[in-house]
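User: Fold this; tokens only.

Assistant: Input:
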Amino acid sequence: MPASMREALGRWARTLRRVAGMPDYAAYVAHLRRCHPERTVPDERAFYEEYVTARYGDGPTRCC
């Protein structure tokens, strides 16, 4: 796959994640390195687990 197509798909995926309300891991890592260099950067899986817990808590999101 050509690099330009890969970049376009990456931009499309980031836009889709933003519309769906999902966080952008790459932007988060850049922010941590720029503003909080003393913090360790979590791997992508830990980042999304933290996001889901912060958004929905530890319990179920529905009553049924």
